[in-house]
Fold each of these.
Amino acid sequence: MANKIALSKFQLDALVEVGNIGMGHAANSLSKMLSRKVQMTVPYINFLPVERLTDMFGNVEALVAGVYLEISGDARGKVLLLFPRDSALALADLIMSREVGSTTILSQIDQSALMEVGNILIGSYLTALNDFTGLKLRQSVPKLAFDMIGAVMDFLIIEISSVAEEALVIETQLQEPSNKIKGYVIFLFDPGSPELILKALGVDK
Amino acid sequence: MEEPITVRIATLKVVSDPAVLVCRGLGSCVGVALWEKGSGIAGMAHILLPSEEFSLKKDNPEKFADKAIELMIDQMVKIGAIKSKITAKIAGGARMFISAGPSERVHVGERNVQAVKHKLEDLNIPILAEDVGGTRGRTMEFETASGKVKIFLADQTMKIL
């Protein structure tokens, strides 16, 4: 089993394109939920050594809201959505129809709302992936943590270490123009899954 | 006071001169602070996994509880620490994401804590203080001049071990 994968430029482009379309769907869902335009970009897609995942973020002590869920079915993986503290609070304000900036602590309902955002984003991404590849993918119930970014991420590194040396990371930013909400989506596909997706896309050679 | 030296994930650091060593943003990872009071020689490791069997990639011993602790002690003894006088303080091993349903198999954080404790016990190194488990991330700061360990949580609260 290959746990270290060299992708051609062409294959990487294909994955980026799927990422773009999937995230486009996800952004649409979120736009509907918030009744305002949300944009998403796929600025970064690559394989990273698992131990260096937290290096993507400069300050591992920065506060984030993390929504975590697992993907199963024809391909397997884990997804972590990260919203920096201020963005998480602003997002909760928007969803709950409060004035942005009025929240300083996430209530239970705010937390549920953020988990729902995670559900919707990942759900629409997986639907897009399914449209493209025919792969059937399910998502687990989301979980939420609000803490330092290093702390929120390290169990992922621990779990992925036993099955892979490198992880396919799709880092996406979502941006809501007036309120500067930023978020990151990190996909960690288990070994074999990226090849499966490439094969389903017809770019495995 | 010296600039703190960050001990990054899956690495360790040993010092002979007074320093502040820090493991930032520990979640399920475990920070291990070793100290030999007489010489002031100290070490800190940012442990990722219990042992090699939990990792596909085995080239870096500093990420495993068993290997990292041994390595740290070897390095400390080499620069003058007395092995039988080394003591430990540990922190981390949290479960950051809690599911509403029944709890899963032994969690990776718990597993790390057990592995660290097991190794320290094997080597007869007493654990003077610990702050492990729970559901919150920690930053662990180790002042090697005094042996004092400070634990900072995300909400800025602090406690001393």
Amino acid sequence: MRMTEKGLKETGFSQRFGQRVLQWLKRLSAVAGLGWLVTACNVGSTEFTMGSDFIEGGSTLTMIDTFHISMSTVLIDSLRTSNTGVALLGHYKDPNFGNITASTYFELGIPTSFSEDNANVYDSTVVILRYNGYAYGDTTQWQTITVHPIAHRMSGNDWDNAIYNNRNTPYLPEVLGSVRFLRRTEASDSLVIRMDDTFGNDLFTKMNDADEYMTSNYSFVNYFYGLAIVPDTTESNAIYGFSANSTDLVMRVYYHRPNSSGDGQDEYYADFPYTTVDPAYNRIQADRSQTLLKSLVTQKEDLAASASENRTFLQCGTGLMTKMRFPSLNDIQLLNTQGIIMKAELEFSPIANTYDPQALPDSLILIETNKINATVSTLTSSDGTTLHVSSSVDKLYNENTTFSIDITSFVQNAFADGSYDTENGLLIGWGSTQYLSRLENLVIQADQKAQNGPKLKIYYMTF
Amino acid sequence: MKLKNKILLLISYLLFSISAMGQITSSPYSMFGAGTIEAPGFGTNQAMGGAGIALPSGTFLNNLNPASYSGLDSLTFLYEFGAFLKYTDYTSSGYNQDRIDGNFNYLAIGFRFTPWLATSFGIVPYSSVGYTIDTEGNIGGTTTTYNRNFTGSGGINKFYIANAFRITKNLSVGVNTSFLFGSIKQVETGSDNLSLSDYTLTTIKYIRNLYIDFGLQYAIQRGKNRYSLGLTYGPEVNLVSTYDLTLVYNSTTFPLTYSEDQKYLMPGQYGVGVAFMKGNRFTAALDYTLSQWSTASFANPQIRTQDNSRYSLGLDYTPRTSIIDRGFKKMHYRMGGFYTTSYMIIDQQPINSKGMTFGIGVPLKNNRSMVNISLEAGETGTTSGNLIRERYMKLHFNFTLNDIWFQKQKYY
């Protein structure tokens, strides 16, 4: 007994205190369990709709479009127009873009099926061109095209085996054939040019004699260098596209021989098809001497919009692109320190009544460029796909058509090296190689004070 | 047995701490600053309109004034536990909605070490945040509008240890050391924006802060009558210690920083209270508290701040205090009222609060512990200026558990 009492005494204050606390906590846990049920009692809707004046915290979104955009026209002096699958032909006069002449150059291969026979008799030769559906200009005008033999064997560039739009391939003055035509309806799907018979007969004879030049396309192009088809530049006002491939573009030689029963003759033809032993290409010449762009001759020297009535130009096929520089872009870094750039959007518009809403280039892209107007790299989205300019076309009035493109990644990457070099910029170009065989164009409003002037819209968020 | 006790302790602690983090408020006004500032005081104070700066702790813990703990009896171990159930009716021009919330509130323990030193510690809410607000945003510089949705959650809790020192027979002083902890989260979602993709902006502000406030009580006993005066003071402190700000936009997460320091101000506070007690039968308390909110500022320039005043008055009456009395005669009947002027002015509109309280205290069998239930009916805000008026009925449940220490006793 005494020992126990002594022991109790020695436990002291702290142990008894601890026991009491635990005792109470035990009871409390029962109460807490009850209270736990109460916790579930958050019932009812409490979504409030309030004016934005009320809001505390959160973000502020702002758009600024006062960044200066310096615009100019750039001439891309080497457009690869070889082996595009299109033969572009015609002549077109445009007050903005000058006199445009498209001529096409291609080689012929040997016929795939031909049986030599002493009884074969040459009849005639034609070149058949099949419309690919593309036409630019006034197709109600008569057009004359002539066919000439190419003077020397064609060859691609040493470095890329391609031929550019500005290559002048000499051809002989002799006219192998010509046609004056008007494409009256969509139903007329091809154009036939009657060829010189001396020329046709020569090839026919070589074929019938199984001449060594006729053993392969490679040997044949050493004998006959190909055809140059060029438009007459005095009367025509349209440029047409034709399919350039071995089935649609052929030179056809008609011949006959007596039939086996001896009571008549069988008609035959042999096709010398379009071939690309050496590159075939379209030469696209633009004489801009009567336009605002007359001083634009080299790619390195662009023509400021101020020198061309505050407008810039873009034309596929002839290599006109519009360059945009952003002299005040570095100011964006100020925004970036305060918040975050959510989006950068570039907007530009064609000048009212300079365009046909049905014939706007629909595959415009942006290409990063530098001081010497080189095409450095195509602007892509973060996942690597090419960004395309989207358009909202005013089909009703031809006045409020606007192009826009999200250039957020360009703006964000512009400062990767600290600050943006204001000599760098963006070229508005075309994103599809098929545009190399097209002449769609834009006359772009370069005056930022104009209602439809170019704008760089920066959306940024501050906190 | 010991292990079992430890487990129970752990469970009750976890239960409380989990729920303490949960949503205990639902008010659009909790969007501002640290949220809705919870009225201090446990069950007895709550039933008395929140008044009691001059009241001693004794039959209950009075955490309105740290000096009050000197009033604890020796050998007494007081335990306060509270929960509430709140029904709120929200009215704005054009619509009306309601909601029920409920949760634990607080947990506190108080006891006296020596005749001159008494202590209390516990966890109480300081503020709470809970809202979902839809509003329209506008991209500055354009006419483009978009939908903005804000949800807020979280709150600040206070773990405190208070010590009261009896300086003389009449004078006590107290110091209350608190650790403020918690987080306040705001999620903003922008959607239906023609120019931009949807975004989610999440801000979590973490609060970990030590806070010290002070109190003084002076009482004079004249026969059965006790006249007392209480003073409290708390300095101003910024509560935010760190924050996370992240933007999720176009499936990319951007960690961001604010351009300005983030602040939730806990304003400097001055409280004065007077009380009159007639034995155990009757208590009256009148408080005035001034909070210096004018030094605080909110990010929204439409919102001004001003010093705010809280007036509260409470009465406590019990018909019989004798041990032999039974039933209703032994119960405490309490009532009170309060009026709080706004510390923020939104668009010229002050957000005042007022309310009435009615409560009963039911003694338990041991005659010392008590169950307190009170009903608070109040109103906050206004419908003018397209704002929201909240009218609520709040049921407070409180157990004041009073144990006599170091003395063998049977409980239930």
